[in-house]
Amino acid sequence: MTDQTANFGFWWLKKGWQTLLSRLADLRLAIFLLLAIALFSVSGTIIEQQRSVEFYQNNYPHDPAFLGFLSWDVILTLGLDHVYTTWWFVSLLVVFGSSLTACTFTRQLPTLKSARQWQYYKRPSQFEKLALSSELSNVSLDTIISQLKQHRYKIFQQDNQLYARKGIIGRIGPIIVHAGMLIILAGAIFGAFTGFTAQEKVPTGETFQVNNIFEAGKFADAQIPEDWAVRVNDFWIDYTPEGEIDQFYSDLSVVDREGNELKQETIHVNKPLRYDGVTFYQTDWGISSVKVQINNSPVFKLPMTQLNQPGGENLWGTWVPIKRNLSKGISLVTRDFKGTLLVYNSAGEVTGVVRPGMAVNVDGVTLKVVDLIGATGLQIKADPGIPIVYTGFAVLMAGVVMSYFSHSQIWALQTEDSTYVGGKTNRAQVSFEKEFLEIIEAVEEQQGELSPSRA
To answer: What is the CA radius of gyration of the chain?
Structure first.
């Protein structure tokens, strides 16, 4: 009784496992999972990721709710503020990967195995079931073999029976495609949990370490640089003849703890700096501060503050005290990095325009603008999963190319009266038919009259 119970339990587990594999390998499930992954990936692109609660409260209020139902609390509850690391999104990737794996082992590998296992045709009646077949008179197998070799077939022969094939790589292609997709999924999951994204706005001349991280995986600490920093050597902007920004540049140096330069590079939009798995992109700019001098005073530096303007126009301004008790001062305002600043007196009236190196008299003092200091805006990313993803794409492309090869098979049987030839292919039927007829016609030219019969 115990053995019967054990056998039943084993049978039940085996049956359940086979049922699970069959359902995982279902094409409909794979399509559904792929669409779900695509949908939530789009949501992660539309909805800003890894921002503060206040950000979502301000940008996704209850009335009006985004798309009619996505308010800030719904976004936070569903985890749409960190889509790619939520348990349900990772679960979708895992289940989709499991579906690909099940399909590979239950369908693709058996198909490849059956393609590699073949048998000779021993009866003429077997050729009638093939897509193409011909009955030839006075033709030897050697003549057929000669033609098949010219068309790059691999030939197997046993006595009066022949089998030839080519393009078996096409059967391997789908397996390679699945392997590439699995590698991409693994890289995406690995990158989501170990990568980070940060933003920094750094004035010229300052050295900084990556601190302002707004999106990071749960295991991203190992990727955040601690034994080196980045120094902003210079920042400048090129303008078009019309006065519009053409390009902005940052000259950056990676330095160690002692300040020794490890790497130097000038970056601009679409030309980042890469070091130790971390990439620095040029994304923004600003005006950090201005150096001024009042009469014969020492040169001092004042921060420039970005002013919010209707229409999103960029303006930066600062206030320059001209009395020790800070009861009176001059305002400086600029809209770009060309170096032109508007000067406002203590009454708020525009009294002139000044550029770095120039001086202006206002409210009884001489104000000299010594220099205008810019700040570079950098987006900093580290994603250790990218090399894995790129490898997966390479494997995927190779598999796609391999899948285009047709797996063609030809059989031949020589009897006392006739020689029977037939073949089939899994794709490109018209091309295979043309090739098959070329082989038959070439054989006919050498050894006799062709008498075709189509199954």
So the answer is: 37
**Mean pLDDT, residues 207-220 taken together:** 86
Q: What is the largest CA-CA distance in the chain?
A: 122
Least confident of 323-327, 348-352, 370-374: 323-327
pLDDT confidence tier of residue 156, bands split at 50, 70 and 90: very high
Dig out the tokens for 238 from the structure: 């090129």
197 contact partners, CB below 8 Å, separation of at least 6: 50, 213, 214, 215, 216, 379, 380, 381
**DSSP strand E in 383-426: where?**
408-414, 419-425
Tell me the domain boundaries of the chain. Answer: 2-109, 130-167+406-452, 168-195+383-404, 202-376
Q: Which residue has the tokens 């989501």?
A: 192
Identify the CA nearest to 376 among candidates 313, 284, 244: 284
Average model confidence (pLDDT) across the chain: 86
The Cα 90–Cα 139 span in angstroms is 63
Strand blocks (E) in 187-244: 196-203, 207-208, 213-216, 228-239
Q: Which of 283, 222, 277, 271 is nearest to 254 (CA)?
A: 277
Tell me which DSSP letter residue 308 carries. Answer: P
Q: Which of 382, 378, 47 is nearest to 199 (CA)?
A: 378
Rounded to whole angstroms, the Cα distance separating 286 from 93 reads 40
Q: How far apart are CA 415 and CA 136, in angstroms?
A: 10
Average pLDDT rounded to a whole number, residues 393-410: 91
Q: Quickly list DSSP for 137-183.
A: SS--HHHHHHHHHHTT-EEEEETTEEEEEE-THHHHHHHHHHHHHHH
Question: Does an H or E element contain 373, and which?
Answer: strand 365-382
Yes or no: is domain 130-167+406-452 CATH 3.30.310.80? Answer: yes
Torsion 76-81-86-89 (CA) sign: positive
Between the CA of residue 29 and those of 4, 36, 107, 180, what are the distances in Å? Answer: 36, 11, 15, 19
What DSSP state is assigned to residue 112?
A: H
Please give the Cα distance from 153 to 163 (Å, whole number): 10
CA 19, chain centre distance (Å)? 34
Report the number of secondary-structure helices (H) and strands (E) in the chain. 10, 22
Q: Is 202 left (phi over 0), alpha (psi -120 to 50) or beta?
A: beta
Residues 6+ apart with CB under 8 A from 297: none
- Output the six-digit token pair for 121: 């045709």
